[in-house]
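Help needed: design a sequence for this.
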């Protein structure tokens, strides 16, 4: 593909990681080496898994397989049983592990096939298989036409800047960052780990201007007082997505980073990442400004249809899609003026208290106004009378200040929430439950 010609970027740094610094020339040479040796026996159209998170070697392999018109399955899992399930569900023919900068190819003797994979083979296009989080059932294996997806990044202006690869290799947001960096000739900084200390250290060391993140991770930065412990003055923009942002947390962040622009991003693994604009850095309202994506709202739920959406699922029905191609995201939205929208939660996370609906993010936003509380996770628990009731796990600013916290919470919420929204069960925890992708896991208990 045209944008994969990196000759214009020559000796600009492409990748910086613990393993070293690599230029775009080095990347081009490595891609060619892989084509001549490691993947020389791999047939175009075969499904190839890359068992690795981000590294210089995995990025080069991804691009080499893309040029070879393979269907690529990035897998960052380390649990062997999970890896085996994903290899099977994605119809993988070969798996490539990367250890100490070397590539090890494993033949899987895959005898099964899938009509969508065959369609891609007939097109002569590369493909991409991503898995859903699986938080409410078996992970869905979704397949993209990777040529179509990548083409949407062509024509970007070259930029000399350092960008963090924060989101993971098997995440649509992480791949969005990767493809953006490569299309602009920018430099990707690959963290050794994704904890607050490491990320803030890299921001300080490499004067990173843009941090792609999630509300959960940004709150962890606030809890760690990162803005006062590290020099983060290089930051010009923080983008956030993957889950709803509370107004209270955004207000805290804007106070901590007054010179930083905050931009809400939005996308799904099924439809790709949309171009968005926030009403302001202080607002959780955003507008979808993407010529390749249409949206509509049905009964408060956001539906999307895009040029880059998946061809289908390899292991599930297409019940999330309408017959005319609309993807029902499960995201509930509030409509504002002039086309602005606000994500207010997920339909599967709504708490039903005797027929009254409770949105966890609304309750969390109120609780986060309390100076005693650093974080809150609201979820449903069974109730013999009302069916469900509201429960919350809280992280206290002073861990020893547990005396009467339930009563304090109820009194604080009394004039701010309807009675049925006030938590009836309060649990003090060291940290709230979130996934490796820094997304709150509030599945109703």
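Sure. Designed sequence:
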């Amino acid at each position: 593909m045209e944008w994969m010609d990196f000759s214009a970027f020559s000796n600009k740094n492409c990748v910086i990681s613990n393993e070293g610094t690599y230029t775009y020339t080095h990347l081009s040479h490595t891609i060619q080496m892989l084509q001549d040796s490691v993947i020389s026996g791999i047939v175009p159209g075969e499904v190839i898994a890359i068992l690795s998170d981000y590294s210089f070697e995995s990025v080069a392999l991804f691009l080499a397989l893309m040029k070879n018109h393979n269907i690529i399955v990035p897998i960052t899992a380390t649990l062997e049983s999970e890896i085996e399930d994903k290899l099977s569900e994605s119809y993988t023919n070969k798996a490539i592990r990367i250890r100490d900068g070397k590539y090890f190819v494993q033949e899987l003797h895959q005898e099964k096939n899938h009509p969508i994979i065959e369609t891609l083979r007939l097109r002569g296009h590369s493909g991409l298989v991503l898995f859903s989080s699986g938080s409410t059932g078996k992970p869905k294996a979704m397949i993209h036409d990777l040529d179509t997806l990548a083409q949407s990044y062509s024509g970007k202006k070259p930029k000399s800047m350092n960008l963090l690869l924060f989101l993971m290799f098997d995440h649509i947001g992480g791949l969005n960052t990767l493809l953006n960096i490569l299309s602009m000739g920018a430099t990707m900084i690959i963290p050794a780990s994704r904890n607050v200390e490491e990320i803030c250290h890299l921001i300080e060391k490499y004067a990173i201007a843009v941090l792609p993140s999630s509300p959960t991770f940004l709150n962890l930065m606030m809890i760690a007082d990162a803005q006062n412990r590290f020099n983060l003055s290089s930051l010009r923009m923080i983008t956030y997505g993957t889950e709803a942002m509370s107004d209270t947390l955004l207000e805290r962040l804007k106070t901590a980073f007054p010179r930083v622009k905050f931009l809400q991003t939005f996308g799904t693994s099924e439809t790709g990442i949309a171009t968005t604009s926030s009403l302001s850095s202080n607002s959780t309202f955003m507008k979808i400004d993407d010529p390749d994506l249409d949206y509509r709202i049905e009964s408060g739920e956001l539906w999307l249809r895009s040029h880059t959406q998946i061809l289908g699922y390899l292991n599930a029905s297409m019940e999330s899609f309408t017959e005319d191609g609309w993807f029902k995201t499960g995201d509930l939205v509030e409509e504002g003026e002039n086309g602005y929208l606000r994500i207010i939660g997920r339909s599967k996370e709504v708490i039903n208290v005797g027929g009254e609906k409770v949105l966890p993010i609304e309750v969390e936003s109120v609780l986060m106004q309390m100076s005693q509380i650093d974080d809150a996770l609201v979820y449903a628990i069974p109730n013999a009378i009302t069916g469900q009731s509201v429960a919350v796990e809280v992280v206290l600013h002073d861990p020893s200040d547990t005396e009467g916290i339930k009563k304090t919470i109820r009194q604080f919420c009394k004039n701010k929430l309807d009675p049925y929204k006030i938590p009836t069960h309060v649990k003090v925890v060291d940290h709230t439950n979130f996934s490796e992708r820094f997304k709150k896991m509030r599945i109703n208990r």
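DSSP finds twelve helices and 27 strands in the chain.
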